[in-house]
Task: structure prediction
Amino acid sequence: MDNWEKLQQYKERLLQEKMEQKIKLTLEWEAEKERRKIEEEKLKQIKEENMKKHQEFLENLQKFMAGDSCEPPKELNYVCDTRPGAEMCTFFSKTATCRFGDQCSRNHQYPSISNVLLAKNFYAHFGLDNMFENNEYDADIMLEYDENETYKEFEEFFCDVLTEFEKFGKIVQFKVCKNYEKHLRGNTYIEYADLRCAVAAYRFLNSRWYGGRQLSLQFCNIRSWRNAICGLQAKQRCHKGRSCNFLHIFRNPNNLFSLQKLPEENYIPRRRTPPRSWRWSESPETEIPKDTKSSRESNDEEKKNRERRRSHKRKLRKD
Result:
């Protein structure tokens, strides 16, 4: 009898524990549902507030771009620091670039918007990429690509790109780098007189394609062009050569945008019909194959011209 009572008590205790566990789980589930509900409401509220702020931002940006507002949206007036509190990187402060990138131990400051746009490695040319190589193979190839030919291609680039950027407003400075260092080579700086123009150009041209390359624009600060540009480069006396971290720039046609403020009223950029590889586009373009026979004849003629130039330049070197 005692065993039976003990068994019944044990069963009742198990049942009681089971009911208590069930009630506990139910309460926990109800609490979890309530917590999720509150969290969803908070997220919904945050989302609505963010959408409202974004809408206000777009409206303020539109007013600023239309000239109805003198100041840009406050959301755009901020500076991003790579290493807050660290010493400022001297080269980045002057040229908006650094050979170490954002891995630099010093601080780089990126403005949210500014009058100056930077297109990194925008101008690309075989002569520019190989003019500083020293091996025999490259030296032989570079007989065909002296600085004059590289500059001739740059003139086409200058006229084509300047015309496109001028659609958005007055440009007060346009500089293209011919440095060897990768972080500077081909960098293109465009400074607008009006902040609105720079923002408009960024919104329209960023991520477009040009010459088979996707354009990546960023805003930057150039406080002084004279401090950014290598002062000895123009005189061909830069003792640092290809390791120089200041801007070595191409001379713009007719000295347009010269720091010496030379007359530029009579200058009209040449507008050529650019070859296919220099075209602007919304997406990458595929080259169209040329006629086989005409292409072969053209290649043969080009090979003869190259050989003549090589022979002539070798002769000049011997003399």
User: Anything to note?
Assistant: The CA atoms of residues 53 and 75 lie 10 Å apart. The longest strand covers residues 171-176. The two ends are 127 Å apart (CA to CA). DSSP finds eight helices and nine strands in the chain.
